[in-house]
Structures are given as structure tokens and as C-alpha cells.
Amino acid sequence: MPEILTEGIRKVLKREFAALTADVELLVFTRKGLNDKFNEITVGLCRELEALSGKIHFKHREADGGEAERYGVTTSPVVLLNPDRYRIQFMGAPVGEEMRSLVLAIRMVSQGRGVLSGASAAKLKGLKEQREVMVFVSPTCPYCPQQAVYAVSAAVEAPEAVSVKVVEIYENRELAERYSVVSVPQTVVNGEVIGVGLQEEGVFVDSLLKGVRPREGPAPPEEVVKKDLVIVGAGPAGLTAAIYAERSGLSTVVLERGNIGGQVALTPVVENYPGYTRIAGKTLVDLMAEQALQYAEIHQGEGVSDIERTGEGLFRVVTDSAVYLAKAVILATGAEHKRLGVPGEKRFFGRGVSYCATCDGYFFKDGKKVVLVGGGNTAVTEVLYLDSIGVDVTLIHRRDRLRAEERLQQSLRERRIPILWNTVVEEILGDTVVNAVKIRNLKDDRTSVMPVDGVFVAIGYEPLNELARKLGLELTGEGYIKVDERQRTSMKGVYAAGDITGGIKQIVTAVGQGSIAAITAFEDLMNPYWKKD
Question: Annotated catalytic, 46?
Fold first, then answer.
């Protein structure tokens, strides 16, 4: 078969594998007649990885023998890492976003330590009861690698207590259906679903220790970290601010609750960012993050639970992992998807209701029927993406014309994707997963039930302003943070950039605002405007 890794990727991996300290065995099990195409890809990929480092050793076995039974292998393909020491399985071909998880897993197994904070690792080392963890993933989900890496880290830190299976949903449909997985990542511990979506590190560790979904986050440690600047949010605005802040000489940390890149990481294709005629959103923010990491610390999975201004004029920023004292704060928290607010939406979230076509569309790729609700650029972009991967998708829009750019509408017409005009979803129906939607035509007021396997929602965004409200910042009527032309908020020392400020929600806007916020923060700290006459 042709080579799987490009020359560019091989160069990157060689640099990554230069950090390996101990040998890593990749033991691959395959069974003829089960996922043959993916078996071939997995064997070829692991063979190519072996060629990149003298520390990596590839072995191939049939999944029908006693060795497979010994290691608990029940499907094909499966990749095990140092199976005589760790209980780590990648079930399914580790391609796409899953490749990131495998590469990091190789590095963690070689070095004998995970990526969890010292406090989290210490908690896991005291775990005595057995924890069997499954993380369901897809090749297109940008949130999945981080959740998988948390799980693998737990297995590395507590190998006697924690076993991990990273399960690709398409190649392991029976297992995915057993746990009603329609949205990824989904995490299962000892047979119980403990989380849908990317969890913060502290929440994941706490739920793993307890074996149940936590009702409250863990208490923050007492350790205090001092910084000049804390940036909350690692989208384009936050990443750009980090570059400019550190280059100005400010010690900076970026705290990101979820996925680096924000909404852009979920955008299939970006066609309006200068310098790139056409680029995947995830690729674009990966380039931004790679550059930002050359300057500042970025803590993914570390969400801010509290923030306040102290009597000394500093800001106390609390996360699950640390307490930060900073001279200034930039809020780049962005916005989240609006909900429809109809019966069944909350109940079936992760069970057929999704707000991310890039994450969850892969599950419906073999002609399953879904609807996508919306009419703007995001909605049409996601409809085109779903159609391109083989999903039977219908667009539902409450008006008789779309708000999306004409170029996107033209693509919609060319592909003859059906649209239900002047129509709203009134209820989402199902048993354990979605099986239908109740819709109403606004012109004739008729209602009907439409059988579907999934519902995607793209009707706009709501600002993530919880921290702004804690600080008492002045907000617009829609809940966005009010800023001046220098990105200053109503509180001295606090700045805001990106989608959280409202206005034009474009990548270039966020990048520009991030740079202005960082430069302004530096200038204000050097020469405080509030101390001038």
C-alpha cells in the first residue's frame, strides 16, 4: 500500500520522538474479515512509526489466538502500547485526530508519565479500586484527542488500577450503540457514562476517582502562581494576545477550559483568512497555537471557576489546578452555540442532538438522515460538510431566505441539498436516542413528524460572560463585554477581545483585537492611565 505519512509529517514526528527515553512496543492485533481496510491502514501506519525511531518496536498478531485473549482484545484493529506494563488499547485505525492521541500516548508511555498536573497525578497514584475507562472518539473530532490523552495519562500514572480503551465509533459500532454514543468524545468508567464532551482535567480526574459524574468540581489547590497577565481563552484572540504580551515582556499564561482554537477549530474550511485561499479551521488554529507556545504557557483543560480583584489591585484567578495572582487579565472567552430551547433538546444532547458537525457528523456518514437548523454562514458551511461525507442532510430555516454569503448559497444549490423554508423545530423525539423531530410550517401552521437520526443546531451564539459578570463588568444588552477602542473594559486592568465583545465575529477581527488588548495591557502596566491627572 502507499505510504500513509507525508514527508512533512514524518519530519514533525521525528522531532517529537526524539524525546522518547524508553522503548515502546506497538502490538497490533487484526482479524481477517473484520474492518479489513482499517486493518491494513493500522499495520502500515505502525510500521512507518517504527521506522521513525529506534525506540519504537512494531509487532503484528492475529486477533484469534491466545495472545489476544490474554490482553483482552475482542475486535480489530487494536493497537496496544507496552501491554506487559500498561493496559492501553486504541480500538480502530488511529488516523485523523486520533493520530494525535496515539503520538502523545507513545511519548507518555516511553517517559513513564502523563500530561496531568502534579496534583492530579498524585491523586491517581492513591487509587486502589479498578477503573475501566472507555473514551469514544471519531477521526474528525478536535475535542477527542485531549480527552483521550487525559485517559491515557491516568493509565500511565496508575497502571495497576486504570485500564483505557480509546474507541473509534465507526469501526466499533456495536459497542458505540451499546452506550448510545452519537456525540463524541464520550467517556465511560466501569460501564457508566461520566461525561459527554471534553472535560476539564480536574473534573475528569475527580469523576475517575469517584467512578461517577461529579456534581461539583474539585476544590482548587492552595498553590499560588504569580503572573503579569492571565489570558482566559485560547481562541484566535487569546493566542494572538499571548504572542504580543510575551514579546512585550509580560509573563503570561493562557487558560483554556475546552479546545484550543475555539469555534475556529470546528470550522471545516476557512476561505477568508488573508494568506490562505483555503485552509481547514483546525489547521489554522494549530499554526497559531504552535507559534503562541513558543512564547507563553497554554494550559488546555484548565477552566477558570472564579475571578476577583484583590485589595492590592491584583486579580485572583482560580482554576481546578492552581490559583493565579495577576496584574492584568484579558478575557477572550468567546461565545457558545445557542440552543433551540425546545422539548427533547437537553435530554438528547449527545444522543443525536449536536452543535458540532465536525465532531459528530462522522457517525452519520453512511447515509443516515439528519436535519440542521439555521440559516447563516455557519449553518450552511456545516450542511455542506455533512453532505460531503455522505450524510443525508436537510436544512431547516425559519425564514424564506438565508443569511449566508452568496458563495455558500450557490454551493448549496449546486449540490441540491433540500431546504425546508419557513419551518421551525418544535420538539425532538426519541427513546434512548433521537428518532424524529416535530416541525411546524410558519405559513400554514401545519405540524408534522419527520423521522431523522440526528439534529444539528447552528442558530448563532451566546456570549460566555460568566467571568465578566463575576467582575461586574459593563455589558451590552445582549450580554457582550463593552470595550473601548483599546479593548479596555469598565474595570481597570481588565481587557476583552474576540467574540466575547460582540460585533463582527470573524477570525481577523479576533486576531486584531487580541493584539490590541495585549499591547494596551503592557502600556497600561508600564504607565497606568488611571493614575494620570
Answer: no
Please, are residues 167 and 175 in contact by the beta-carbon 8 Å criterion? yes
Cβ contacts of 250 within 8 Å, gap of 6 or more: 228, 229, 328, 518, 521, 522, 525
Alpha helices in 330-476 (DSSP H): 357-360, 377-388, 406-415, 466-471
141 is catalytic: no
What's 3's DSSP letter? -
Q: In the numeric block, which cell numbers belong to residue 358?
A: 465536525
CB 419 within 8 A of CB 301: no
* pLDDT for position 222: 58
Q: Which positions of the chain have pLDDT values less than 50? A: 214-217, 220, 533
> What does the block give as the cell for 158?
496508575
Q: Which of 356, 145, 172, 174 is nearest to 268 (CA)?
A: 356
Active-site residue 360, yes or no? yes
Q: Which of 46, 141, 144, 359 is catalytic?
A: 359
State how far the Cα of 81 lies from the Cα of 166, in Å rounded to an integer.
12
Q: What is the dihedral of CA 239, 245, 249, 251, to 10 degrees?
A: -60
Among 440, 231, 448, 218, which residue's Cα sits nearest to residue 320? 218
Q: Which of 206, 320, 356, 387 is catalytic?
A: 356
Cβ atoms within 10 Å of 4's Cβ, excluding its own: 18
Q: How far is the C-alpha of 318 from the C-alpha of 325, rounded, in Å?
A: 9
pLDDT computed for residue 7 by the predictor: 93
Residue of 206, 228, 320, 360 marked catalytic: 360
Q: What is the predicted pLDDT for the residue at 412?
A: 96
The CA distance from 211 to 208, in Å, is 5
Q: Residue with C-alpha cell 431523522?
A: 452
Place of cell 512496543: 25
* Residue that the C-alpha cell 493497537 belongs to: 79
Do residues 255 and 261 touch, judged by C-beta distance below 8 A? no
> Closest Cα to residue 473, out of 309, 239, 257, 227?
309
How far apart CA 107 and CA 18 sit, in angstroms, is: 9
Do the strands 369-373 and 454-457 form a parallel or antiparallel pair, or are they unpaired?
Answer: parallel
Position 510, amino acid: A
**List of residues 6+ apart from 376 with CB closer than 8 A:** 402, 403, 404, 458, 459, 460
The x, y and z cell numbers of residue 388, run together, are 460531503
pLDDT of residue 215: 46
- Supply the DSSP string of 250-310, one letter for each residue: --EEEEESS-TTGGGGG-S-B--STT-SSB-HHHHHHHHHHHHHTTSEEEET--EEEEEE-
Task: Give the other-Cβ count within 10 Å of 66's Cβ.
Answer: 7
